[in-house]
Write a structure and sequence with these properties.
The protein is an alpha+beta fold. Helix content is about 45%, strand content about 10%. Strands 1-2 form a two-stranded antiparallel sheet. A hairpin with a 2-residue loop joins strand 1 and strand 2. The chain starts with a helix and ends with a strand. The mean pLDDT is about 80.
Length: about 160
């Protein structure tokens, strides 16, 4: 009742409401023309950043004329042999337990804790990759969010895209 009567600027409700209001993009200007509506803004933002980050033809340095050591046939064969459970477990255990949580908030510490339950699924996934050379759809997905660079963004150049991998 006190909160209703007097208000509380430090309450969780106030911050969430304020943040939600700040994060809404209800209008954006493109070449001086205002764009409104969720779908129109979404399409405009997508097209802008897709164009901005489209791969361009860049001259890459070549490796012609460089002397590389060659692997023996036995070492080269190790590069294409299937992964073993011991190798996969060692790779997981070599990762920091508390870094790189994904969008599902799962980190390597959690994976290590439930390794006995996950190891068969891990191996099935890696064997499928080894057999086909392709990752399952969605494994390499990235969400793009736009963060304002200025207090009152009006144009798409006023936003910075960040990747949420």
């Amino acid at each position: 009742m006190n909160w209703v009567k007097e208000g509380d600027a430090n309450s969780k409700f106030f911050h969430m409401s304020s943040r939600q209001r700040r994060n809404i993009i209800d209008m954006i200007q493109v070449d001086g023309v205002p764009v409104e509506g969720v779908q129109n803004i979404r399409t405009t933002v997508f097209n802008h950043f897709a164009t901005l980050y489209r791969a361009s033809t860049v001259v890459q340095p070549g490796v012609e004329g460089l002397n590389f050591q060659k692997l023996s046939y036995s070492l080269a064969g190790n590069l294409v042999r299937p992964f073993t459970l011991e190798e996969v477990k060692q790779a997981v255990w070599d990762c920091d337990s508390f870094k790189s949580s994904g969008p599902d908030r799962i980190n390597f510490g959690f994976i290590k804790k439930i390794w006995q339950e996950l190891k068969d699924d891990f191996m099935r996934f890696l064997m499928e990759f080894h057999r086909n050379g392709k990752l399952s759809k969605g494994v390499n997905s990235t969400f793009i969010a736009v963060m304002p660079k200025v207090d009152s963004p009006q144009k798409l150049a006023d936003f910075r895209p960040i990747a949420l991998i």
